[in-house]
Amino acid sequence: EVQLQASGGGLVQAGGSLRLSCAASGFSFDDYFIAWFRQAPGKLREGIACIRKSTGITYYADSQKGRFTISSDSDKNTVYLQVNGPKPEDTAVYSCAAIETSSHMEFAIMKHRWFVSSEYVYWGQGTQVTVSS
């Protein structure tokens, strides 16, 4: 069974830096997508970035390019989200999500829908990030 464990949240000052981690385990297939989402109070959940395990290809929301960097460490089976220059509006619960892909069709779907939360099967518990001004 796939399990995701998000960590690294907390209180951070605006303009600093923050790195979130998502430890993943239990995948049955060699290829999968892991994405970071966030949800602020009173707002919809939004996709920030995604990485495909087999190729390392990354995807970013247009509005978040430049300040967020997603990366992975295969040896540790961990995906990271680096937040550069966090702002108070980045305050939210950050969650990682995953879906295994075993066909070209599934890959094609996720390539264009990586930011849609309903496409993901597995979710971590979320980690709170609070950015103070």
Structural description of this entry:
- The protein is mostly beta strands and 133 residues long.
- It has 1 helix and 11 strands, in the order E-E-E-E-E-E-E-E-E-H-E-E.
- The strands form 2 sheets. Strands 2, 4, 5, 6, 9, 10 and 11 form a 7-stranded mixed β-sheet that branches. The chain has a 4-stranded antiparallel β-sheet with strand order 1-3-8-7, with no helix packed on it.
- The termini are far apart.
- The model has no long low-confidence stretch (mean pLDDT 93).
Which value, in Å, is the CA radius of gyration?
A: 14 Å
Q: How are helices and strands ordered from N to C?
A: EEEEEEEEEHEE
Mean pLDDT: 93
- Helix percentage: under 10%
Output the structural class. mainly beta
Shape: globular
> How far apart are the first and last residues' alpha carbons, in Å?
40 Å
Strand tally: 11
Proportion of β residues?
Answer: over 45%
User: Uncertain spans, ≥5 residues at pLDDT below 50?
Assistant: none
Describe the structure concisely for a colleague:
With 133 residues, the protein is mainly β. 8% of the residues lie in helices and 50% in strands.
